[in-house]
Amino acid sequence: MPFYRKPRNFTPLCMISEKKSIKNNVHHSIFTSRFDKFVGDWRNDLKHGKGFFLTIGGKLYEGDWYNGFRHGNGTLSNRLSNGTFCLEYRGDWVKGKPEGVGWRYYKNGDVYFGFWKKGYRHGYGKMWYSDGTLYVGYWHMGVKEGLGMFVQVNGNRYEGNWKNDKKNGLGRFYHMSTGQLQEGCWLDNLCVKSKMLDINVRQFCIRPTEYPIPPETLQNSREILEESKLWLSQILGDIDKKLKNCID
User: Per the UniProt record, which residue ranges are transmembrane (predicted)?
Assistant: First the structure.
């Protein structure tokens, strides 16, 4: 006959200690194996709620947590050699990455404020560069794309379309030092076709042109242009015929 065993009516100590080790609610200080430190709220052994997390490398995050991720609103800072902290990012987070609206402070002095997605500048935002230039417009996964304005140190600015971090498409370039406006089409930061106009404040610029651009005075200028194109095409056709005859 099989030996009858009486069922257990007690919980082993290992199981009790394991349940007690699951972190819930507020803990004063929790240290990891790398000596990172977390102080804040827990739920089901995951960071959840409010808390700050300091890594051994000097990264400090203070803000909201959700299921172990930086999620909500929070700030990220870096510890300097003198013991103080320098702000790196403050704003919205989603699953550990900046997403939403936030400020970003770069080591080289650049500052960005605007929308983020998966840790990249995405959507409308403003970028103040350390060299004194400014960009205001739209971004796509970290690069300028869409409508935007770029202002140079000397006041000259470009307003128009961007793609892959370069001027691409229709746009306007204001030469504020000379008082002229350049309208046209750009391709990879190069203007391939444009027309020049005088702006209203040309005479108040730093180095205005000596004479304003004269207005168009030709009558039926478009018809004249079409006729000149037709005349030029006929001449080129005659030249091609003569070259073919010479070759034959």
Answer: none
